[in-house]
Amino acid sequence: MEVKYISLLVLIFLTIGYFWGRYIGHKEGLKEGRLRAPIALRKKSLEEGFCVLCDENFKFEMKDS
Questions:
Q1: What is the C-alpha to C-alpha distance for residues 30 and 36, in angstroms, rounded to an integer?
Q2: Any idea where the domains of the chain sit in the sequence?
């Protein structure tokens, strides 16, 4: 009888740990995505030669240093 209760408690704690870790990972993923998205959009715009958000063309010149 005691083994059943211990097994049940272990299963409950593992489930709680899983969902807690998933919640924390989801929050960290959203935070990192918000930080990286503007950089990725700017990089793609510079590579394509136009703004990927509004389709406005732009030209830029690279200066020799």
A1: 10
A2: 1-65
